[in-house]
Amino acid sequence: MMLIIALAAVVMTACDETEKKTMLNPMKFRTEVRLGMTPVKDQGHSSLCWAYAMLATIETEHIQRGDSVNLSVAYVARNFMKEQADRYYLSHGSSDITLRGTMPQLVRLIQTYGLMPYDSYHTDANMNVAARKLRSTLVAQVGRGSGLVKARLAADNVLDGSINPLPKHVYMLGMEYTPLEFAHSVCMPDEYMAFTSFTHEPMNKKVALKLTDNYNDERFVNLPVDRLMELMEKSVRSGHPVCWEGDISERGFSFADGVADVPLAKRNCSQTMRQREFDTFRTTDDHCMAIIGIARDKEDRKYFICKNSWGTENPYGGLMYMSFDYVRLKTIAVMLNNIVLPAMED
């Protein structure tokens, strides 16, 4: 029983930052592609990797176009908690307040509630503490039966105090936007598409993956893994980042070393092996990062260069070098810009 509890704790906390000790002799890589990026951020002990990674992907996409944007995770997190506050009150407290999510959820949230630049709305607050305070306030509101309007006001007051009060407008480059106008200026509703690769769902169809954090049954195009890897590589080589979601519970994944790889026996895995790892809970939905480049090691093996959100204290300034073999085996899903899709057709 204690082992099960320990394993559950690893899964629940895998998205947040881990050990900081760095290796003495980091691996050497030869960079083939390196896209632009905003500074590496630190999500602390929150479970907001999906928001950090998808916003980082959008930021890199704009940098590649010659347009620099640095986007607010705090604004997304606040709206996500506020959305859940309604559900919590109306369900009499039978739901919960969580910071966990998936990549498509970020796109849905900004298309619903808008977005702000980092300079307009950011915080040093502990988001886990903010979520706990919100939950505590809602418990009291449910107990009193205060009504949805009062519950919403109470939620806003807690979030104002725990994070920061919200500005009503966004100002950027001398222009004034509403949050929704700003969101549409950096990410259109259908600009990104989500992909996955599992045989328990029909291939070449859009499927709602039954993931714990896929609360809204977001849909993913299910492709064979060879095709998925091809899409990812061609996207990056054509100048467009990829948002990656997958398993980081393997021994071969080390933020301290800045490298993720699999044992020799698991290299170039088959679709069957990949599915078996998922079916037996050895591939879990743990973490998200933005893929911004491609490199090779001294053996000429290919790696994706990933922008992580655990700060800069590793040999590569917070970046991760994730081998193609690791990605092939351990990917849950990816999101990429639709602009590259026509070029992917044979």
UniProtKB/TrEMBL annotation:
InterPro entries: Papain-like_cys_pep_sf, Peptidase_C1B. One of its GO terms (biological process) is homocysteine catabolic process. Coiled coil: none annotated. One of its GO terms (molecular function) is cysteine-type aminopeptidase activity. Keywords: Hydrolase, Protease, Thiol protease. Pfam families: Peptidase_C1_2. One of its GO terms (cellular component) is cytoplasm. It comes from the Bacteria. This is Cysteine protease. It comes from Prevotella pectinovora.
